[in-house]
Design brief:
The structure is a single chain. The protein has 727 residues and is α/β, with parallel strands linked by helices. The chain has 26 helices and 26 strands. The strands form 6 sheets. Strands 5-4-16-15-14-6-7 form a 7-stranded mixed sheet, with helices on both faces. A 6-stranded mixed beta barrel has the order 21-25-22-24-23-26. Helix 8 packs antiparallel against helix 11 and helix 11 packs across helix 12. The chain is globular, with a radius of gyration of 25 Å. It binds iron/sulfur cluster.
Length: 727
């Protein structure tokens, strides 16, 4: 008689009857994992798996990628048909595509005719395909002709873009994931890699398993990343720049810098040296909260490493001196000769799957292929290629997203087109954004989901296809262009964004006279031509070659077998003269700070299960099951002082508004700080301030002052907390 094993239920792997696996790139974060979607005999997507021979993820996926095929099921809230209404808040009526697009084009033309071309603004995303970004840029810059055109990447990566441009003369992350395999020291600023970019974190862990090197994490919060670090520097919120200047101070004082590299490849050394002279560790410690010996130690470890690299995410970018923080990281790597060499790099870890694609090709901040509106040669080149008058282009970029919304308040902008972005949840100060959207004469929302919160304020809703319901490319954090094959047809009567942009272009006289390729590969061919000989050269890529290689990094010129893992390997930078700039950066403490009335720092960030405003992950089974409601991390000492117990609800008040949230008592945060994930609607952004960085116009989401008290009516507070789930 058999006992034990055969009495237990064996683990069964459900047979999903996959008949074909289709290649794609994950549509959530910028890690850029290669993924295959399994389809059954009926052509329905039923499974997802990582691609084993893809260099980025080597067969792995995080929880979001593993369930990505569920996006294609009839998840609640998907748009199926265009919707129209005369007045906002009236019920929508279903419309044909022709009716919705005719009305949209007519309203754009009416507003521009009445108030001027720039009175109609366009705000897009980091989520659609690069070919779609390029086409939208052609439409916005070459047809509609508004200069108030930007992407929501201003909320996440604008400081990195600005910092790269100021230091190196161009955008473009110089490093790659392979640098983990060569570096002798990793310094991470404001990046909770295990939760934000789990597969990049796994790449780091894999490198650490074969070769030990110090990992130093700078973060006010004891994040998961901080918990595994060799050194955690719990810097005071908003003072990273002081710490970076102090590290440079020690390196120069102790002659640990690389004078030959500095002389050959940089300019501005003397001014930089004079500035960091003021940031001695003793003075800096009093501001940034890291003791002076620790500052000296970290400076020595970093400068003495054969190769050292710095990565960062929103802890640096989302600050009133985010751009300066990025430049300070670049300064550190320039004085130690850590740019363009294996294991030596500045590497921004990007947020959205195709934030890089919009930076490269959308024309938001200029013209396609890292061209600038400010340069006559660039304007003429693109105008000739598109077949329009170069005088149609403005001579400098217009408003950033974070300035477009205030321009609605002042009446400068009257109409707005939102594409796969959701400012009602993502922007700071929700109450202000609500009033702003109500002021618009015309709002069109183009999104895969009709229940996206911003759509409550629209006059037209255009249902877009999602992710692999269409075809095209994304570029990931390390400049790797990867492909998304079309896995299945768009849901209902939704259309690929490319189709929508082309259809709008045909409703303008100038659009009808221009060439708008119908399919993504035709658009990619135009981009290849425009990239030839440029920094982001993709002329050596084809869709088949990209798929075969599981992604190719740019530059990849015509004839090249593969792309280049690193930039600036020859020390030639993109500023005129070819040198990088060492820029002196005085610290200006201009943010809201805790005081007697509002005694807590409020910090915001992500959880691993959710992506951005939960438009997708709020609907996908396991992601939402594991993280269904908002919560606030609070130190147990602070909880005891205020009489708030673990699991109770607290009211959080700032100068902007108030919100209610469940409390999780944890030592992850300091006694004078609280932390709330940013994903949930009507939650943390009711209280955030979001002062803007002067260079990048990126909001400082991560630092503001709040008051916390136990919610008097716990039942009502629980109801409000659950309401923030929204779905
Ligand atoms: Fe997708 Fe990012 Fe997860 Fe990779 S790490 S599976 S790209 S969400």
């Amino acid at each position: 008689m058999l006992f034990g094993r055969n009495k237990k239920n064996p683990i069964r792997i459900v047979d999903k009857s996959v008949v074909d696996w289709k290649y794609a790139t994950c549509g959530y974060c910028s890690t850029g994992c290669s993924i295959e979607v399994g389809v059954n005999a009926a052509g329905e997507p039923v499974a997802s798996r990582g691609v084993a021979d893809a260099d980025v993820n080597r067969g792995k996926l995080c929880i979001k990628g593993i369930f990505e095929h569920e996006l294609f099921r009839q998840t609640p809230g998907r748009g199926t048909t265009p919707l129209l209404r005369k007045e906002r808040f009236e019920p929508f009526r279903e419309a044909s595509w022709d009716a919705a697009l005719d009305h949209t084009a007519a309203e754009i033309q009416r507003i521009q005719g009445q108030y001027g071309r720039d009175s109609f603004a366009i705000v897009s995303t980091g989520q659609i395909m690069t070919e779609e970004f390029y086409t939208l840029g052609k439409l916005a810059r070459g047809v509609v002709g508004t200069n108030n055109y930007d992407g929501n990447t201003t909320l996440c990566m604008s400081s990195a873009v600005s910092g790269y441009k100021r230091s190196f003369g161009s955008d473009g992350p110089p490093g790659c994931y392979e640098d983990f395999e060569h570096t002798e020291c990793l310094l991470a600023f404001g990046s909770n890699l295990p939760e934000q970019h789990p597969i990049i974190y796994w790449r780091l862990k894999e490198a650490l398993e074969t070769r030990k090197f110090p990992v130093i994490v700078v973060d006010p919060r004891v994040t998961m990343f901080a918990q595994m670090a060799d050194m955690h520097l719990p810097v005071n919120p908003g003072t990273d720049l002081v710490l970076l200047n102090a590290l440079a101070h020690v390196i120069l004082k102790e002659n640990l810098h690389k004078p030959d590299y500095i002389a050959a490849h940089t300019e501005g050394y003397e001014e930089f040296k004079a500035l960091v002279e003021q940031y001695d560790p003793t003075t800096a410690a009093g501001i940034c909260g890291i003791d002076e010996d620790r500052i000296r130690h970290v400076a020595r470890v970093y400068a003495k490493a054969g190769a050292a690299m710095t990565i960062w995410t929103m802890g640096i970018n989302q600050s009133t001196h985010g751009s300066d923080g990025v430049v300070a990281i670049n300064n550190l790597n320039l004085i130690t000769g850590n740019i363009g060499k294996p294991g030596g790099s500045s590497l921004s870890i990007t947020g959205q799957c195709n934030a890089m694609g919009t930076r490269e090709w959308s024309s938001c901040s200029g013209l396609p292929g890292y061209r600038a509106l400010e340069k006559e040669k660039d304007r003429e080149e693109i105008a000739k290629f598109w077949g329009i008058d170069p005088e149609f282009f403005p001579r400098k970029r217009g408003l950033f997203m974070t300035d477009i919304l205030p321009a609605i308040e002042t009446g400068q902008v009257k109409g707005l087109w939102l594409i796969a972005t959701n400012p009602m949840t993502s922007m700071p100060n929700t109450a202000r954004i609500r009033k702003t959207l109500e002021k618009l004469e015309f709002l069109v929302v183009q999104d895969a989901y009709r229940d996206v919160e911003s759509n409550e304020y629209s006059h037209v809703y255009l249902p877009a296809a999602v992710w692999a319901e269409k075809e095209g490319c994304f570029t990931n954090t390390e400049r790797r262009v990867n492909l998304i094959r079309n896995v299945c047809a768009p849901h209902g009567d939704s259309k690929p964004d490319l189709w929508i942009f082309n259809a709008v272009a045909q409703r303008f006289p100038q659009g009808r006279s221009m060439r708008f390729p119908e399919n993504a590969e035709g658009v990619f061919s135009e981009m290849k031509q425009l990239s030839k000989g440029r920094m982001l050269d993709i002329s050596g890529m084809t869709y088949d070659k990209i798929e075969k290689a599981r992604g190719l990094q740019w530059p990849c010129p015509d004839g090249a077998d593969k792309g280049s893992p690193r930039l600036y390997t020859d020390g030639a930078f993109r500023h005129p003269g070819g040198k990088a700039k060492l820029i002196p950066l005085p610290f200006i403490d201009n943010n809201e700070r805790p005081d007697e009335e509002y005694p807590f720092w409020l910090n915001t960030g992500r959880v691993v299960e959710h992506f951005h405003t939960r438009t997708r992950t709020g609907k996908v089974g396991n992601a939402n099951k594991f993280s269904p409601t908002p919560y606030m991390e609070m130190n147990p000492d602070a909880g005891a002082r205020l009489g708030i117990r673990h699991g109770e609800y607290a009211r959080l008040t700032s100068r902007r508004g108030e919100t209610v949230v469940m409390v999780q008592l944890t030592q992850r945060v300091a006694p004078n700080a609280v932390f709330i994930p940013f994903h949930f609607h009507d939650c943390v952004n009711r209280v955030t301030l979001g002062l803007l960085d002067p260079h990048s116009r990126q909001p400082a989401y991560k630092q503001c002052a709040v008051r916390v008290e136990r919610a008097a009516d716990q039942m009502e507070a629980a109801r409000q907390n659950v309401a923030a789930r929204s779905y």
